[in-house]
Design goal:
Two copies of one chain form a homodimer. The first copy, chain A, has about 190 residues and is mostly helical. Chain A is about 50% helix and about 10% strand. Chain A starts with 7 loop residues before the first helix and ends in a 5-residue tail after the last strand. The interface between A and B is large, with 43 and 42 residues. The structure holds a DNA duplex (30 and 30 nucleotides).
Amino acid sequence: MKIKSQSEPLLSFFKALSDANRLKLVGLLAQKEASVEELAAVLEISASTVSHHLSILSDIGLVSARVDGYYNIYRLETDELERMAQSLLAQETLPEVVEGLDPKAYDRKILKDYLAPDGAIAKIPTNHRKLEVILGYIAEKFEFNRTYTEKEVNAIIGALNPDISGLRRDLISAKYLGREKDGSAYWRVKGEG
Amino acid sequence: MKIKSQSEPLLSFFKALSDANRLKLVGLLAQKEASVEELAAVLEISASTVSHHLSILSDIGLVSARVDGYYNIYRLETDELERMAQSLLAQETLPEVVEGLDPKAYDRKILKDYLAPDGAIAKIPTNHRKLEVILGYIAEKFEFNRTYTEKEVNAIIGALNPDISGLRRDLISAKYLGREKDGSAYWRVKGEG
DNA sequence: TATTTATTTCGAAAACAATCGAATTAAATA
DNA sequence: TATTTAATTCGATTGTTTTCGAAATAAATA
């Protein structure tokens, strides 16, 4: 099942107003209500096209129609327009737009690029952002709430990549591992377990 | 020369935000700045497509880029977004949208439909709105600031359509012509000259 | 200096949207 | 009831937009 974004109304609103003729329709109806025929004459497009545009505006509640004799008289729902415009400014609107997206997708892509199929680190990235992701991956091989000897640390790192001392230094300077001043013990500091 | 609407910025704004992926980009950048690669991974679309979308957002000043090493780091121009959203609500925004449109286009179309090539009234509309337009057309054949005898009135109307008494009555009841109680004089009341 | 890397630009394919005129529907008048 | 009228729906066409992968660009590293 496809995860559907929470922001459909917002997108529909922008789509509805992202056409020059529809924007003009809203502008005209803001002045006074009007029939399809009249709008078509002023916009110089066919009545069927106006009808199509009005149905899009009507779908999101921005205009409504009233029958009067032969005519369908359309009017702008001013309150609705104001409500929608206001909600653009609301704090909670933008966060909803990104619901359903996975912020870890980039980290996963980096791991995929730098790890061998067996989980070893095939190549060490020079780039800072990417190195950070790889260091986080190494850190996960360490448990919280215990200490490791340097020999144990080297064994864990060495199973992943031959550049043991370089990676050990990086892990400490990036604060993934803590270390006794005399080098007698190491322990895991941060990461997500 | 094509008359250009005054509302280009408004239309560009809506167009820019009328795509689901661009809306998500804005949502992501609202949380934190990010590189093209990172955005592409999270949205699960190609980097070139992200680049294309960012250039559209950047054209209207909604995002900006900063170079950092290999990366172009994009950030949301929060102030600009707020400014644009605010201007949607501004009084003067909607009227600008309809600038350059001719509100008399509908009247002209009605005249075209009901007048013969020589200017005579080929057919009298039953519809109220349309009849009004035709009456306005007849009224223009009368001068302001003088009176007409019934004979003169009949001659002017008769040159346009044989239903003289019907049209004369309509002109008076729609207040295009004034009339002495005893019917001895008629004069033009409203219209645009 | 040659190579690697992220981004942008380009060109083509596919998806989408606007538009028109004709056919249909619904409502008013003759 | 048949006709006229305005609006909507339909089908086809045209134009625009999104998207991708490949090629070009620009910037950092080896």
